[in-house]
Design a protein that fits this description.
The complex is a heterodimer of chains A (871) and B (116). Chain A is an alpha/beta fold and 871 residues long. The two termini of chain B are 23 Å apart. The chains are: A alpha/beta (871), B mainly beta (116). The structure holds siroheme, flavin-adenine dinucleotide (FAD), iron/sulfur cluster and FE2/S2 (inorganic) cluster. FE2/S2 (inorganic) cluster binds next to loops of chain A.
């Protein structure tokens, strides 16, 4: 079959990866899609996706989230995209490409963007069952499936991708090993000092690193499945799974076969326009190309530049003579939670250059700057803390306005300087993935009237690829707005010009106990008398609830006006799920539960057909309850002695515990009892964000207290209190606030700490970000809550005592109040009718939301009945 | 302001193709909080009452998620116009026009509403 030939000239793109997609966009921008037929042959079973972010699949991003291809764009531009149909041969004489399906396309211009393939060293057993590479979504799916019930994994190669793969294996629950031939990790990016800092941090995370050894053989069992590997030092490593990540090689096979010139070590040879040196009708871009500077670039930014260059050359756009003569190899990564960055001349290859190094092996920090004789910043390496990467990279090639030493010293040590991006020249490159300069970003604000980071991203493309520049981008946008006279408003929202902390002080000082009173007296002029908004209502409701007994409000969140201010979760005292059903989490203090308690939960879940799951917070979550079922479920839970677990509120979640002294041979205190005491003391406490805690019975820390807002670890002499820890998206280890406290001392200190946080934090600010934001940080907090430097400790303790005395279980209050109960219906005019779009389908012997039901809106009547019959 | 149930005999009604459809007692509608109504043809409407006592009704289906939850969102005023924010992913919808304030291309249906 031959695809339709027309008079319109045809451009054929082979390979729809990241660079191929950018090339299509660049063609469209130049109007080329209107004048040309564009045909794309895509080998993978899905169109272009974000390979750089591949690993985020393991943190929950779906293949759909990773997609970079807007099908609307493809259709609008009239691009013919053949998915799952790779090019097999090129006939350059006849200017034809043949695809695997038999499709033959005539081209006027052919663009090769075939990327690379992972290099697998030729060791015996490399093709065994359980050996993988790490390049495509399909690779990931295969690894995930194989990892299933297995326990150990090893990665061959300790470079960038190897570390990423090792992190992914660890994320899959495998004990992970990294085997690297070079004497240090990430040999290309970092030097020995950086490698050492990286090694320590990675080992502390529980990964085993073997450097300076090669893989000699993959050992297999009788079924041909991997059981281990033999290393060059004679040792053997037991493993169920091997991922090869020993570098990539350009995919130039197709080009070779058609007689195009390739480099000695691979790569299709191209000139400065990305035109192949052998054939003016053929271009090569991305990882398959050997650029005119003799290098093959394995990063996406240079590939993007090549895509633009080739598109410009094809459009013969004289106004815009782009050339590609080489690119910057700066990289910043967040590997396994460790920041690693290298930029410019990281290894100090420039003649006569000097180093400035700061290293703190205890903290896993290593920072090196390479400086020229004349003070020019040439490059550098940052391990453990890459905050300054964006600014430093942009200053590369110029003399920074402050001394280089001050740039690598940690904050607070000596005269460290935070060099703001405002000091950068306009031609400094801020986003290297997309080659966007500072001037362009400023222009987006001043000329294109962008006022937010998302707008600037859309307008300039900056920050849309690896994301490492977004922070600097934000600082620039704010600075530019401020400079152009736009006052950057620090107010809570459009209704209040005050910060959350200021509103707290007003409410406390004046005993204001309704939202409307606060809005009408202290809101912005044009917001007074209005209905407020979805941001300030719950925030103010939370302040009023935290201070309820003190300011004369009812602490019950469904009382009077309070009921109208709450997010839906607090309003129904349950967590809203994606299909409009709710989840139910009873409190299980300290994670301790009796067999009877378990049985009651099991019976309720069974009777209402709920999906049950053990949560990460040591309790049990029941999903799939409809609003009208909530009171029925809770009546039974309350009868059995359970109370609300506040999984829905910005309030105390759980205090996890380890089994502790009572059973554990290492325990030195009763961690379970302390966890229960703490959970019962602070339950129901409304706060700016949720609060989590844990108590461990000894320094082995099985309860992970150091990742909590307040964490307690037993010592022989009492308790150590840690604060400001966080799991979640930006994990932070908690800081030690005080040591060897007795029970009463511990509780007094937590009382003060929590109340001080509630008083001064922003809306939705966890203790971790709060601690880093407030002036003086941990030292200031210690001064205030331990040394009482502000003289407010007595007040803080009184506020907490009032909260504890005023606590009532929200659910028992609710099920005893017919007026409140009347709100728990799907329909005000049909209280007994369940919402028909809340339906479920079976999965692994339980239920899950019927999502197709949501997209069609409603099913025919009999289906509705069927869908709900199993409930 | 008073939030105690008022003793009114007023009923809230929606205008459907074939006339006015009675939904509930006015005093069930707390200012700032919505309720959902099931319509005779199986569709769902979300009804709201603002602080000044004005009533609004829009389609209950959140077009971003497909779930019938708009009645459970928080309401507010934006540039003088009343809106509700979806409780799922927080997009806001103008209560008078149904226009989504965060995505020009999206709009939900609206109903005429009165008390009688
Ligand atoms: C159920 C559970 C997952 C599970 O199946 O295990 C869960 C589920 C949710 N988590 Fe979580 N988190 C759960 C444990 C955790 C943990 C682990 C822990 O607590 O030890 C963490 C990391 C620790 C931490 O918070 O620092 C965690 C970090 C988050 C975050 C990120 C917070 C952050 O500071 O970055 C969010 C988002 C947020 O709160 O803004 C979140 C938000 C959510 C929400 C509330 C999202 C939402 O708004 O719908 C989920 C709804 C729960 C529901 O519908 O019932 N969840 N979540 C866990 C409930 C524990 C419990 O018993 O209450
Ligand atoms: C896990 C991982 C993390 C990474 N992290 C980073 C990072 O942080 N920063 C960075 O800059 N880079 C990173 N990279 C590298 C980056 O992904 C590549 O530089 C980029 O994808 C190159 O784009 P490309 O279009 O040249 O190749 P690819 O994205 O590989 O696309 C080539 C496509 O061509 C297809 N193809 C090959 N032959 C044919 C044929 N004959 N017919 C049709 N189609 C064909 C392939 O199937 C593939 O889909 C990472 C890569 C991986 C795997
Ligand atoms: S933290 Fe210590 S006391 Fe608690 S379970 Fe672990 S080893 Fe035992
Ligand atoms: S530097 Fe990667 S997105 Fe800007």
């Amino acid at each position: 079959m031959t695809a339709t030939e027309g008079a319109t000239p045809t451009i054929v793109l082979v390979g729809h990866g990241m660079v191929g997609q950018r090339f299509l966009e660049a063609l469209a921008e130049r109007g080329m899609t209107a004048t040309h037929r564009v045909v794309v042959l895509c080998e993978e079973p899905r169109p272009a996706y974000d390979r750089v972010a591949l690993t985020s699949y393991f943190s929950g991003r779906t293949p759909e989230d990773l997609s970079m291809t807007d099908m609307e764009f493809i259709e609008k531009e009239g691009i013919e995209l053949y998915v799952g149909d790779p090019a097999e041969t090129i006939d350059r004489e006849a200017k034809k490409v043949t695809a695997r399906s038999g499709l033959v396309v005539d081209y006027d211009i052919l663009v090769l963007a075939t990327g690379s393939f992972p290099f697998v060293p030729p060791v015996p057993g490399k093709d065994a069952k359980g050996c993988f590479v790490y390049r495509t979504i399909e690779d990931l799916l295969a690894i995930e499936e194989y990892a299933g019930t297995r326990t150990t994994g090893a990665v061959v190669g300790g470079g960038l991708l190897g570390l990423e793969a090792a992190g992914a294996l660890k994320g899959l629950g495998l004990t992970s090993h990294i085997v690297e031939f070079a004497p240090r990790l990430m040999p290309v990016q970092v030097d020995d000092g950086g490698g050492a800092a990286l090694l320590r941090t990675i080992e502390e995370m529980g990964l085993s690193v073997h450097t300076g050894v090669g893989t000699q053989e993959i050992v297999v069992d009788e079924d041909g499945a991997v059981t281990g590997m033999k290393l060059s030092d004679g040792s053997e490593l037991a493993t169920d799974l091997v991922v090869f990540s020993a570098g990539v090689r350009p995919r130039d096979q197709l080009a070779r076969a058609s007689g195009l010139a390739v480099g000695e070590r691979g790569g299709i040879s191209v000139d400065e326009q990305c035109r192949t040196v052998s054939d003016p009708h053929v271009f090569a871009i991305g990882e398959c190309a050997l650029a005119s500077d003799g290098r093959v670039y394995g990063l996406v930014a240079p590939g993007y530049e090549q895509a633009e260059t080739a598109a410009a050359a094809i459009a013969a756009d004289e106004a815009e003579e782009l050339t590609f003569t080489g690119a910057d190899l700066s990289t910043k990564l967040k590997l396994l939670g460790v920041d690693v960055a290298s930029f410019g001349d990281a290894h100090g290859a420039t003649e006569d250059c000097l180093d400035v190094v700061y290293s703190d092996s205890r903290a896993g920090l290593y920072k090196k700057l390479v400086i020229g004789r004349d003070g020019t910043l040439l490059g550098g390496i940052l391990v453990g803390d890459a905050e300054a990467y964006g600014t430093l990279k942009a200053f590369t090639g110029s003399v920074p306005p402050v001394s280089p030493e001050s740039l690598v010293l940690p904050a607070g040590a000596g005269e460290s300087t935070q060099l703001g991006p405002t000091a950068l020249p306009d031609d400094a490159i801020i986003c290297s993935c997309n080659n966007v300069r500072k001037g362009t970003i400023r222009g987006a604000v001043t000329e294109h009237n962008c006022t937010t980071v998302p707008e600037v991203k859309k307008c300039t493309k900056a920050g849309t690829t690896c994301g490492s520049c977004v922070k600097v981008l934000g600082q620039l946008v704010t600075a530019e707005l401020e400079a152009s006279g736009v006052v950057v408003d620090k107010g809570l929202c459009g209704c209040f010009a005050q910060t959350r902390e200021e509103l707290y002080e007003i409410v406390l000082a004046l005993h204001i106990n309704t939202y409307q009173d606060l809005l009408d007296r202290y809101g912005r002029e044009d917001a007074r008398g209005g209905d407020g908004c979805e941001i300030c209502k719950p925030a103010v409701a939370s302040i009023i609830a935290s201070l309820a007994p003190t300011i004369g409000a009812d602490g019950y969140v469904l009382d009077g006006e309070q009921a109208t201010l709450q997010d839906t979760n607090d309003h129904f005292l349950a967590n809203l799920q994606k299909n409009g059903s709710y989840s139910v989490v009873p409190r299980i203090p300290g994670g301790e539960i009796t067999p009877e308690g378990l049985i009651v939960i099991g019976e309720i879940a069974r009777d209402f057909g709920l999906y049950t799951k053990i949560t990460g917070g040591q309790r049990i979550d029941m999903f799939g309850a409809r609003v009208e079922q909530l009171p029925l479920i809770w009546t039974r839970l309350v009868d059995a002695g359970f109370e609300s677990g506040h999984a829905y509120g910005k309030s105390l979640r759980t205090v996890k515990s380890c089994v502790g002294q009572t059973w554990c041979r290492y325990g030195v205190q009763d961690s379970v009892r302390m966890a229960i005491d703490l959970e019962l003391r602070y339950r129901g406490l409304r706060s700016p964000h949720k609060l989590k805690s844990a108590v461990s019975g000894c320094a082995r820390e099985c309860a992970e207290a150091q990742s909590k807002d307040f964490g307690v670890i037993a010592t022989a002499g009492g308790w150590n209190l840690y604060v400001g820890g966080n799991g979640g998206a930006t994990p932070r280890h908690a800081d030690l606030l005080a040591q060897d406290l007795d029970d009463a001392g511990l509780i007094r200190l937590i009382d003060r700490f929590l109340m001080f946080y509630i008083r001064t934090a922003d809306r939705l600010e966890r203790t971790s970000t709060w601690l880093e934001r407030i002036p003086g940080g941990l030292d200031h907090v210690r001064d205030v809550v331990v040394e009482d430097s502000l003289g407010i400790c007595e007040e803080l303790e009184t506020l907490m005592t009032a909260h504890v005395a005023n606590y009532r279980d929200e659910w028992s209050a609710t099920i005893n109040d017919p007026e409140k109960l009347a709100r728990f219906v799907s329909f005000v005019n049909a209280p007994d009718t369940p919402d028909p779009v809340v339906g479920f389908v079976p999965e692994r012997d339980q239920i899950k939301p019927d999502l197709p039901l949501l997209s069609i809106g409603m099913r025919p009547a009999e289906d509705v009945l069927e869908g709900t019959a199993q409930r | 302001m008073t939030l105690a149930p008022e003793t009114t005999d007023l009923m809230v009604q929606l205008r459907l193709d074939d006339g006015w459809f009675t939904v509930c007692d006015l005093n069930v509608l707390l200012p700032g909080r919505g309720v959902a109504a099931l319509l005779p043809d199986g569709r769902q409407a979300a009804l709201f009452r603002d602080r000044a006592g004005r009533l609004y009704a829009i389609d209950n289906r959140d077009p971003f998620s497909g779930a019938a939850v708009l009645s459970r969102g928080l309401t507010g005023t934006h540039k003088g116009r009343p809106f509700v924010a979806s409780p799922l992913l927080k997009q806001r919808f103008d209560l008078e026009s149904g226009q989504c304030l965060d995505d020009e291309a999206v709009r939900v249906g609206t109903y005429e509403v009165r008390t009688a």
